[in-house]
Amino acid sequence: MKLDSMYQEIILDHYRNPHHKGLRDPFDTEVHHVNPTCGDEVTLRVKLDGTGADAKVVDVSYEGQGCSISQASASVMTDLVIGRTVADALKVQEEFLHLMQSKGQAEPDEEVLEDAVAFAGVSKFPARVKCALLGWMAWRDATTQVMEGQK
Amino acid sequence: MTTTLPGLLDTDAIRKDFPVLSRVLHGDKPLVYLDNAATSQKPQQVLDALNAYYELHNANVHRGVHVLAEEATALYEGARDKVASFINAPSRDEVIFTKNSSESLNLVANMLTWADDPFRVGPGSEVVITEMEHHSNIVPWQLMCQRTGASLKWFGLTDDGRLDLSNIDEVITENTKVVSVVHTSNILGTVNPLEAIVRRAHDVGALVVVDASQAAPHVPLDVQALEADFVAFTGHKMLAPTGIGVLWGRLGLLEELPPFLGGGEMIETVTMSASTYAPAPHKFEAGTPPIAQAVGLGAAIDYLNALGMDKIAAHEHALTSYAIDALNGVEGLEIIGPKTAEMRGAAISFQFGDLHPHDVGQVLDEQGIAVRVGHHCARPVCLRYGVPATTRASFYLYSTPGEVDALVAGLEHVRRFFG
Asked: Based on the structure, what is the number of domains in chain A?
């Protein structure tokens, strides 16, 4: 069934048991992003160690309300960026963005995206792509703000 | 088994007029279209009117002396006559064609933003709306207040989804210049007690604007009985094409108030230094109007009149009662808005357990059921009731009890899917 290609079991697992959820201290910056078409919201904090692209993503914590896609995607995102350098994490974010903009055409790289490959089906549903990107864009925004502040 | 209810229209016959309703989705799922508050489907009669207009009569209106120009003008102005009669307007010149309700409401707000005394709005003036307005009846007034220095006030909502008018004398005061209020909420379904609001507003000399977007398609609309000063609605929710809306206004006001958009057709004379304006309604219809769309609206009104607006209202009331009973029986479902069918339109918003409406709507879609999910352009209502969004089912003259049953079955499937 077509729907199953969106609601993969991995997505439903992350939705039911989200990773790294809840706002934590310490943090460098906090952002609030919304998806105005549907009312999904996320508040997200980032803690980096170091400066510039080599800084390490020490923690990403978040609180939000939204659909299973937005919540699961935020959960998967934290798994993928925590512990990485900013430069590496941004590469993953770009790969995920590319996948979500592919309208179902891209072949996801499981080496890079791990659990996030489960969202490939979501890219076929234009109304839901923003849901999947909400947490990722909040993380990118927060990280960019921290790095700007370091200059 | 087919459920029959007293007051229902002959939907078997009606549905044959709507080609899209016979669509089958996702392989074998008949379309169950329950997103009528967003837009209605179009009967063949309206599609034929659009085609006939373009195939036989297309020309620009109010200019040229050739046959087609005269036919197009007669059709366009004939649509205005139909609208005037449909809403019981005292004069056809009170019917302004716009592109939708949003434009109609922005037009009123801008007439008043630029008005001189006695309509001038400025510092110390107050504009009153309600917490259940569609964004199209919030943002134009916020802009107006920012531009004029006036203050925006609003009526709050009760827990059961009604307007809280307990403080009406404090909200609408001698300083109030405009009260703009929705007739029927697009998200809660609430039908508002406009009489009390109109009376209080007129007592203090304020103008009353009514957003009738969710009323004109569904119930008899009589602008004289309403006693408001302006009434806005849109064609596409009442079987007509997109791109055509209406602003009705009292002729005396339309004569006094300044134009907003300038351009062709809205003028009397033009020199390089100044212009004078055509009388209403043309003063407010700059540029080539949506001609075919107006003709389509005229055909839609013919269709609605043939069924009878009172019968359409009775059909939707019976169906809404049936749907409310059915939805109240779904475990974990909570209706956001009035929980009975009294003083209520045919849009029902709800929360379903802790599932997000996006997920509910997506799994319903997979079963061919089209509902709206989100904040329905009425985010303050979601904030008021502490929900991020709702799922909304909304009915129209072709909706059936069988479709309500399909929705209920669909929701049970949603529960199992995420269970």
From this structure: 1
Assess contact for A53 and A66: CB atoms under 8 A. Answer: no
What DSSP string runs through B330-344? Answer: STTEEEES-SSSTTB
* C-alpha gyration radius of chain A: 15
Ramachandran region, residue B285 (left: φ > 0; alpha: ψ -120 to 50; beta: rest): beta
Q: What residue ranges do the domains of chain B occupy?
A: 11-30+308-418, 47-305
Q: What is the topology classification, in CATH, of domain B47-305?
A: Aspartate Aminotransferase; domain 2 (3.40.640)
Q: B373–A41: do the CB atoms touch at under 8 Å?
A: no
Residue A64's CATH number? 3.90.1010.10
Please state the ipTM of this predicted complex.
Answer: 0.81
Residues in B touching A69 (Cβ below 8 Å): 358-359
pLDDT of B73 over the 90 cut: yes
For B77-119, what is each residue's pLDDT tens digit? Answer: 999 999 999 999 999 999 999 999 999 999 999 999 999 999 9
Phi, psi for B212 (deg, rounded to 5):
-105, 25
Architecture of domain B11-30+308-418: Alpha-Beta Complex (3.90)
At residue A2 the predicted structure's pLDDT band, cuts being 50, 70 and 90, is: low
pLDDT at A1 over 70: no
Which residues span the domain enclosing A16? 2-150
Which residues partner with B309 through β-bridges? none
Strand segments, DSSP code E, in B159-303 are 176-182, 207-211, 230-234, 245-249, 267-270, 275-277
Give mean pLDDT, residues B176-197: 97
Any residues with CB less than 8 A from the CB of B394 and at least 6 apart, and which?
B34, B35, B36, B37, B38, B346, B347, B348, B372
Q: Where are the alpha helices (DSSP H) in chain A?
A: 2-6, 9-16, 68-81, 86-100, 110-113, 126-150
Active site residues of B: 377
Question: Under a CB-based contact definition with an 8 Å cutoff, are residues A89 and A80 in contact?
Answer: yes
Gap between the Cα atoms of B195 and A98, Å rounded: 55
Size of interface A-B (CB pairs under 8 A): 49
Q: Do A6 and B363 touch (CB under 8 A)?
A: no
Q: How high is the pLDDT of residue A4?
A: 60
Q: Which of B366, B389, B417 sits opposite A39 (nearest CB)?
A: B389
What average pLDDT does range B243-255 have in this prediction? 98
